[in-house]
Amino acid sequence: MTSKRVMHLGAVPYGTGGPGSHTLWLDPEIPGDASVDIAWYAEMARLAEQGRFDLFFIVDSQFITPYSPPHYLNRLEPLTLLSALAPQTERIGLVGTATTSFNSPFNLVRRFGSLDLISGGRAGWNVVTTGDAGTATNYGLDEHFDYDTRYGRAQEYVELARALWDSYEDDAFVRDRESGVFLDPAKQHVLDHEGTYFKVRGPLNLVRSAQGHPVIFQAGDSDQGRDLGASVGEGIFTHAADIAAGQAFYEDIKGRAVNRFGRRPEDLVIMPGVKIVVGDTDAEAREIEAANNQRDHTFEAALAEFGRPFGWHDFRQYDLDAPFPGEALRHGERSFYTQARAITQRALENGWTLRETVQSTRHFRRSEFVGSPTTVADKLIEWWQARACDGFNIGLDHPANFRRVVEDVVPILQDRGVFRGDYESSTLRGHLGLSVPENRHTTARHRLGAAV
Ligand SMILES: Cc1cc2nc3c(=O)[nH]c(=O)nc-3n(C[C@H](O)[C@H](O)[C@H](O)COP(=O)(O)O)c2cc1C
């Protein structure tokens, strides 16, 4: 596809408050049970759709402690949630996070295929390997898989998923009342997959949707994670500290995709998560940000949550003003290791204490996307034009703030011609400018036909 490059926008709802937002739920506009309230999600999804967003993005976790963020303590399962949102929305993409570490492929692939049909080709799957190591203990294991196993499973899983989604060629169901022929059996395909991690016969008992397959997103930043994204990802969910970090990541992932996996740069769309605060003026927006930071990110809450990438290791046992305890990194080996290692390296290089290290975490950092609607729009365009990203996954925290993004920032992006004025497609692939994968068996049949 050689269409004009456009910016892509996603909304990531954090209900009663995600990481670092322990008091978001105090906002009177947010129901106390927002994270399990389908009416609240539907309202937010429709607001994002009013803003012509590409997608609504549900992150997930399955292991909690009393110190987990409020949204994580009590939240709906993503596929159930998105299936309920599908008939309440019309165009917006519906992306759900699901792990390849603790799901059986046939079951999960079937559920995403179902969401894709229910939504008319708007489903996306954010492939994760699960950062919270304790999740393993909810699935009969004493500890999480090591990295090679996690990413080995993920790679095989996605390839298997795509093969299962191709079980039926698009014209397999004849449904001819005259002849009484329902199915052309030659167009139903058994898989007989037997790989390193999974054994699945197939076929999947589900046809393809209008977009062929759900869109594959990927989130995970290690070398293996980046290779997974570059080889099979069509959307990449990431974090970028600043424009230079975004550019480096963008170049690395697209470079891997092209050089190692023979793909085109436009075959994958990179969307870092960002925090936006809109005010009438830049000064007012910075005041709102500072007030939010002060309220939402108390040091005590940040310290309790700080251990998450380290397998929820409890850092409250250490002297806050002693040098950062670098040996704690080993607790993160099967958790969010890339993040834990980066935090540890930064702390040791700078000679920080534990207190300084906790304060340096992203919860306390000022966002670049804070200001008047024009300032925010300018910043988004600057990043996008500099190819620090192809778009943004915007954290949906305070609804009033998100409303300002939709009503005040998006129109500027539209006026500047970088964002769509209206939807031009009915599928998520269409919104993201991704091509529809042809069914592999149909391709093979055509090749064979051409060769005869
Ligand atoms: C931006 C980003 C978002 C993620 N979102 C989730 C999530 O919603 N649920 C989850 O279980 N893991 C999530 N992960 C965890 C990854 O799948 C992975 O298990 C973890 O980051 C460790 O792998 P890594 O060292 O390759 O990053 C996320 C990771 C990143 C970088």
> Strand order across the biggest sheet?
1-2-3-4-9-10-11-14
Which regions contain 5 or more consecutive residues with pLDDT less than 50? none
Task: Encode the helix/strand succession as letters.
Answer: EHEHHEHEHEEEEEHEHEEHHHHEHEHHH
Domain module count: 2
**N-to-C terminal Cα separation, in Å?**
29 Å
CATH topology of the largest domain: TIM Barrel
The CATH superfamily title of the largest domain? Luciferase-like domain
> What is the SS-derived class?
alpha/beta
Shape: globular
Bound molecules: flavin mononucleotide
The helix content, as a percent range, equals 25-40%
Rounded radius of gyration (Å): 22 Å
CATH class of the largest domain: Alpha Beta
The major β-sheet equals: 8 strands, parallel, barrel
Helical run tally? 15
- Supply the CATH architecture of the largest domain: Alpha-Beta Barrel
Strand content: 5-15%
